[in-house]
Amino acid sequence: MSTDYAYDEEGHLWPFFVFTLTSIVTVPITYSLIKSSRNDPAAALKRIHTDYEHDQSSVVDTLRKSEKRKDGSKPWLIALVIAGWAVMGYMLYLIKTTDAPVQNLWNPYDILGISESATEKVIKKTYKMLSLKFHPDKARPDASKNETIDDLNRRYVEISKAYQALTDEEVRNNFIQFGNPDGKQGFSINIALPKAIVSDGNGKYIVLIYFALFGVLLPYLVGSWWYGTLRRSKEGVLMESANRLFKEYQDNIDEGGVVAALSSGQEFEDLFKGDKADAGLSKIESKVMASDELPPKEKKKLEDVESGPRRMALALLWAYLGRIELGDATLEKAKFQVAPIAHALNKSFNAIALAYMNTAPLLASYFASQRLIQAIPPKASPLYQLPHFNSAIVQAVEGDSRVHTTVQAFMDQPDAKRRSLVVGKGLLTDAQYKESIAYAKQLPYLRVAKAFFKVTGEKFIIPSSLVTLVVKGRFVPPGSEKVPDVTPIDLEDIDPAEDDLDAILGRKKTKKLVGKDEKGKPIYEETTESEDVYPPLASSPYFARDHSPRWHVFLTDSKQGRVAVPPFTFVSFDRPIYESDGKTPTFAMQTLKAQFQAPPQAGHYTFVMHVVCDSYVGFDTKMEVTLVVEDASQAAEMKVEEEISEPEEDSIAGIMNAAKGAPTKQRVVKDEEDSDEESGTDDDEDDDTSDTNTDTEPEN
């Protein structure tokens, strides 16, 4: 037995090989390109409607576009994908149009032209007739059929083998066992490459190509990916930067200290290489030191930093936060470049603060994120978020008050009073005032209406159970008018029915509480939930990146200054925030849920709940909530007592009616109504298992 190797000279196999090899490369790259385009927030999310532009808006827009091109799809990668799909399409065309050679099985009956039921007499007669007709000494080649003597000889040999296979016992056994009268045959392996590729001296080039692909390019790509992951932390910053931020961490750090710590990132060394670290530094520092927007404490930190990339980065960060005009195009561009880098580094600092579980550094990290996105110095007024607002206008609003006025507080004032404060000579014009007010009325302020704890399917919370923190709130932009009242149904969180597997498993279809009937029983409606709703992109005229706002919900222990439950981050919501016009708020009640394990011991636990938005200053919520954990045995006893104290109405009504000899049906209905009226409020209380709820506006 031998093995024969044959190349694909007829071209029916190599398209499969090329198609497979091309798809291995093209499909993953295509998926990554599609995924990256979907992850682009600017491509999917709406924006706050405004025509406001500051003096450097063109610089910010240019940086945003350049960063999108940098983070987005590279042209050569797109060209590679297009070429890959073109090759795959051509290979599919060849596969469909090229006829593969058909290998017919050797069959002696077909060769002799007889049926398989033919007798031995018929076989001999047919063989004798064919041997006379196709004997090489008698047969002559047919020129019209391009026949040759060799063709006739092969045909005669096939006829002889077919006759022997049907008459000779040994040959017949070979045919039955191996499918061939000559016995077991060798293997034939076809190589899915055209023979021309590896012949005529082309073999060495094919070997060279294989070596380049699998010996050089593949190891390089794998090595680059591997060492690239080792160079950066999971937050996407350089490991050296994370190490420096770890050293800068302090338990009592504030947002100004966080900004100073962020300037130590190694990314700034790549931005300010060589002479760039000192070019224009003295000019920047002189303007920063002369500014009244920055506290003396922060100016002192700048003076203490050694010269180099870090000092340049910190000076530019303070110039950015103070919105200081530098009077130089190169410096202005660098000023807006450092803020997104610092914001990325802040993610790493946030992870470090969370590892320590101290409240102050974690809040400082979130507050620093707000200031970086809105370009507002630490401790400065939140009113700087509004278009056209400068120090003179903020001073006109706040006066000599030591407590800053939030955007919400400013917008809650009557329109006439607002106008009298900010419109006038040296202040805002009427058009600027209207633009600022329209802008403020679109900002997504999440007003928390209620927060409580519960265990799904249970009335009591016992030690070590899986507790759900339910936060109910509405997006009420500052200055909103005709805000509808909160209904009790909006504040309830009804557990899904036991047979509602879609809701239990978190699928789209669920039963929604839509109201109560006359007897106080809840009415459910099966609905199909819409897709996740995302708020508009953070409105940040000075921040040279598109950023999707995030809300962080976590619990802290105010006595110890520690984080009790780590933050849960929400980037999307379950109800529409704005109407189709993108401006009018829906005031729909949003539900945020966070699960954690209850304390191992029974008792009353008072926490401070923080709801922090990372994109807007002063849009945070801080309120106390109390978690009541019942002892497991006491909770079981109370549950039994409730079951005993609530017997079935039908049985009681039947006994009473039977005793009085009155018809039963009418009394049963009345007793059910009375029982429903009495238990209507109990159903509401059972829905919200826990304890501190608030229906008033919480502390901001």
TrEMBL record:
Pfam families: DnaJ (PF00226). SMART domains: DnaJ, Sec63. InterPro entries: C2_domain_sf (IPR035892), DnaJ_domain (IPR001623), DnaJ_domain_CS (IPR018253), Ig_E-set (IPR014756), J_dom_sf (IPR036869), Sec63-dom (IPR004179). GO terms for biological process: post-translational protein targeting to endoplasmic reticulum membrane; SRP-dependent cotranslational protein targeting to membrane. It is a multi-pass membrane protein. SUPFAM superfamilies: Chaperone J-domain, E set domains, Sec63 N-terminal domain-like. Residues 657-700 are annotated as: Disordered. GO terms for cellular component: Sec62/Sec63 complex. One of its GO terms (molecular function) is RNA binding. PROSITE patterns: DNAJ_1 (PS00636), DNAJ_2 (PS50076). Keywords: Chaperone, Endoplasmic reticulum, Membrane, Protein transport, Transmembrane, Transmembrane helix, Transport. Residues 107-179 form the J domain. This is Sec63 Brl domain-containing protein.
